[in-house]
Amino acid sequence: MTLTAGGPAITNEELAVWRMLQRAQVRITRHLEADLLARHDLALASYDVLTQLAEAPGRRLRMNDLADRVLLSRSGLTRLIDRLQRDGLVNREACESDARGLFAVLTDAGAARQAEATPTYLAGVRAQVLNVFTGEELTQARHMLTKLLTSSQDPRA
């Protein structure tokens, strides 16, 4: 059986691959989130923000750049930064060169929380993904995912 939506047909097998990719991503994300919440009271999106800031020069990023890196909408990131700021993990700073621009800046407490949670995150990535595949399979997966990422059109472009 094939399905069409005005374009090339999609077979049941092709649709099954797409659905498995979605399910795998959701399952892995749920496991990582559950571990981070249970051990560090830190949601996965919060961990991602703290990590992006920890890896950035000066532990700071413009809000727009941070939103792109963590795959959140601007408003979604604003709400998350509000919570992280209330918890003392990040601060906002005005951009001197752009009056409308804001930076998210990792605090010392945020850096400590991110460092504390990193072993849990990495163990989860190893258990949920890396230990499932052989080295050759990981190389193949990297090539396939690179192909997906470089061939996809960014809807914001």
Account of the 3D structure:
This protein is α+β, with helices and mostly antiparallel strands and 157 residues long. The chain has helices at 12-40, 44-55, 63-70, 74-86, 108-128, 135-151; strands at residues 2-3, 10-11, 60-62, 90-95, 98-106. α1 (12-40) crosses α5. The model has no long low-confidence stretch (mean pLDDT 91).
Summarize the structure in short:
With 157 residues, this protein is an alpha+beta fold. It has helices at 12-40, 44-55, 63-70, 74-86, 108-128, 135-151; strands at residues 2-3, 10-11, 60-62, 90-95, 98-106. The strands form 2 sheets. The chain has a 3-stranded antiparallel beta sheet. Strands 1-2 form a two-stranded antiparallel sheet.
* Beta-strand content: 5-15%
- Globally, the shape reads globular
The number of strands is 5
Number of helices: 6
Major beta-sheet overview: 3 strands, antiparallel
SSE-based structural type: alpha+beta
Query: Can you give the mean pLDDT?
Result: 91
Strand order of the largest sheet: 3-5-4
Radius of gyration (Å): 19 Å
Low-confidence stretches: none
Secondary-structure element string: EEHHEHHEEHH
Question: What is the straight-line distance between the termini?
Answer: 34 Å
Q: What level of helicity do the residues show?
A: 55-70%
Question: Could you give the topology of this structure?
Answer:
Elements: E1 2-3, E2 10-11, H1 12-40, H2 44-55, E3 60-62, H3 63-70, H4 74-86, E4 90-95, E5 98-106, H5 108-128, H6 135-151
Antiparallel strand pairs: 1-2, 3-5, 4-5
Defining key terms:
single chain, 157 residues, alpha+beta, three-stranded antiparallel sheet, 6 helices, 5 strands, 14% strand
